[in-house]
Amino acid sequence: MPHVHFRFYEELNDFLPVERRKREFSIPYYRASVKDMIESLGVPHTEVDLILVNGKSVDFTCLVHAGDRISVYPAFESFDISGLTRLRPEPLRQPRFVLDTHLGKLARILRLLGFDTLYSNVYTDAELEELSAGGGKRILLTRDQGLLKRSRITHGYYVRATAPEVQAREVLRRFDLYRLAAPFSRCLRCNGLLHAVAREEVLDRIPPGVAASFDTYSMCRDCGRVYWPGSHYDRLRRLAGELLEKQ
């Protein structure tokens, strides 16, 4: 039986069983595009930036032939591969995100850091696909590998970590978001933008003890939630500062 030979590099190995990681392996040949064959092995197309078939760069539509040797690479951050068939679309100038239902705590942290982040615990897969691939063009962050294999989704990332703060560090590194952060500029509840307001404007929205203790307030333009620098602020400020320190 004819075979096709694969080798995946760097973090793409996260999607493979242990016995196939960081080594060449072979699978039986069948007629398919290289994209379909890669995704059948468990690697979402959104994670792939370069494919070499017998040493030549190809796009996702390339048909695989028996005996082909296929090397698959993730995003390159340090090497110029502009002369090759780069597969990922250009990065979004202003990264905006939509998160699946498993990433609620990460959504809150990204909003804390000022990133436009849509999240709902009732989004369906179809809604996530539309929010990512429709006119809004958002990067889909997910723990569901299958969701990233939907052909309409061009900007997506599989979050490896499970702890929310570790997830936030992972996303900051992956998309190099450090210089774009604007902590305390978005509502943690609804993602709306915050604006400074005078105490007199929000007296009917805050407890009496708060009004007597603080002079600085922000209010969400969308949901009207009011924020002030209480004890929670110090904790969140430390968290934002720690996350934005490059590791």
Oligomer: single chain
Helix content: 10-25%
DSSP helix count? 7
Strands ordered across the widest β-sheet: 2-1-5-3-4
Average pLDDT confidence is 92
- Please mark out the parts with pLDDT under 50 across 5 or more consecutive residues, or reply none: none
Distance between the termini: 48 Å
C-alpha geometry? elongated
**What is the gyration radius calculated from CA atoms?**
22 Å
Describe the structure in brief:
With 247 residues, the protein is an alpha/beta fold.
Topology:
Layout: E1 3-8, E2 25-28, H1 34-40, E3 50-53, E4 56-58, E5 69-73, E6 97-99, H2 104-112, E7 117-119, H3 125-133, E8 139-142, H4 145-148, E9 156-158, H5 164-175, E10 194-197, H6 208-213, E11 217-220, E12 226-227, H7 231-243
Parallel strand pairs: 1-5, 6-7, 6-8, 8-9
Antiparallel strand pairs: 1-2, 3-4, 3-5, 10-11, 11-12
Helix pairs in contact: 2-5
Q: What do you see in this structure?
A:
The protein has 247 residues and is an alpha/beta fold. Among the domains are: 3-73, Ubiquitin-like (UB roll), CATH 3.10.20.30; 97-180. It is 24% helix and 18% strand. It is built from seven helices and twelve strands. The protein has helices at 34-40, 104-112, 125-133, 145-148, 164-175, 208-213, 231-243, and strands at 3-8, 25-28, 50-53, 56-58, 69-73, 97-99, 117-119, 139-142, 156-158, 194-197, 217-220, 226-227. The strands form three sheets. A five-stranded mixed sheet has the order 2-1-5-3-4, with no helix packed on it. A four-stranded parallel sheet has the order 7-6-8-9, sandwiched between helices. The protein has a three-stranded antiparallel sheet with strand order 10-11-12, with no helix packed on it. Helix 2 (104-112) crosses helix 5 (164-175). It is elongated, with a radius of gyration of 22 Å.
